[in-house]
Design goal:
Distance between the termini of chain B: 46 Å
Number of domains of chain B: 1
Helix content of chain B: over 70%
Largest interface: A-B, 87 and 67 residues
Order of helices and strands of chain A: HHHHHHH
Distance between the termini of chain A: 60 Å
Radius of gyration of chain A: 20 Å
CATH class of chain B: Mainly Alpha
Number of domains of chain A: 2
Strand content of chain A: under 5%
Strand content of chain B: under 5%
Oligomer: heterodimer
Number of strands of chain B: 0
CATH class of the largest domain in chain A: Mainly Alpha
CATH superfamily of the largest domain in chain A: NADH-ubiquinone/plastoquinone oxidoreductase chain 6, subunit NuoJ
Radius of gyration of chain B: 16 Å
Structural class of chain A: mainly alpha
Number of strands of chain A: 0
CATH topology of chain B: Helix Hairpins
Shape of chain A: globular
Largest sheet of chain A: none
Order of helices and strands of chain B: HHH
Largest sheet of chain B: none
């Protein structure tokens, strides 16, 4: 019972954060909403029994990407007027999004039984996969990260040609 | 089933943000919302499968690559804003 209540609490936090990202017009509120969303996602990972994934989400996204968003906004030096985001309701986009959600649920509902928390998923067992069977994929992910870092530096440093 | 509905709703909400937002920061945040929903669905599948540890490892790889994509996206954003373009309707041409 308490696990179900916890799941619903985390789901509400996640959806509320996503709603703030979609609906707010103020930049800093949007970043805070994104933070709440990412915290909710990390909590749902932990609820599922994936502690390592939850910690990684907290470190990488809440502690990394979110701070990167804040630094980017600060570095851009946009004034208060520019921080107000223009938004408008688009019926076509809403219908497409709802249609996508319905199609996904209908297509995947037979493949996913009721998600319940799992136990026994340790860091060691995950590391056995990552550094064993999936070592090539693990190394490729490392190369992608390095390439992403180099690309980000190249993009930010170059291109003042206009 | 509830996790499936939640994940798909989050992905759809992110897609709505990508389609309707005009500010590049908001578009990038909406992409992050979509990625979060998809990652949650992946984790739910992993929890329901026969090898949850493998699923957690796979989700970790997806998370790492997604973070790299976010870093490149923010770099692009900063580069575009330096050129005075912070909205999607101001980006009307490509070169090369």
């Amino acid at each position: 019972m308490s696990a179900t209540l916890l799941w619903w609490g985390l789901a509400v936090l996640t959806v509320a954060g996503a709603a703030v990202v979609l609906l707010t017009r103020e930049m800093m509120r949007m970043i805070l909403g994104l933070g709440a969303f990412l915290l909710g996602i990390a909590g749902l990972y932990a609820w599922l029994g994936f502690g390592l994934l939850a910690v990684a989400e907290l470190f990488v996204y809440v502690g990394g990407v979110l701070v990167l968003f804040l630094l980017a906004i600060t570095a851009m030096g946009r004034d208060a007027d520019a921080r107000a985001i223009v938004r408008r309701f688009d019926l076509g986009a809403a219908l497409i999004s709802i249609g996508l959600a319905v199609v996904l649920v209908v297509a995947l509902r037979g493949l996913l039984p009721a998600a319940v928390p799992v136990s026994g998923v340790t860091v060691e067992s995950t590391a056995d996969y990552l550094l064993g069977v999936w070592l090539p994929q693990f190394e490729i992910a490392g190369v992608v990260l390095l390439a992403g870092l180099a690309a980000a530096l190249a993009i930010v440093q170059g291109g003042d040609d206009e | 089933m509830t996790t499936l509905v939640l994940s798909c709703a989050i992905v759809a909400a992110g897609l709505y943000g990508v389609m309707t937002r005009r500010d590049l920061v908001a578009v990038l945040a909406s992409v992050e919302v979509m990625l979060g929903g998809a990652s949650l669905l992946l984790a739910a599948y992993a929890a329901a499968g026969t090898a949850p540890a493998a699923g957690q490892g796979y989700a970790l790889l997806v998370l790492a690559v997604g973070a790299a994509g976010a870093a490149v996206g923010i770099a692009l954003l900063v580069s575009l804003v330096r050129r005075g373009r912070s909205r999607t309707d101001q980006i009307t041409e490509v070169r090369g």
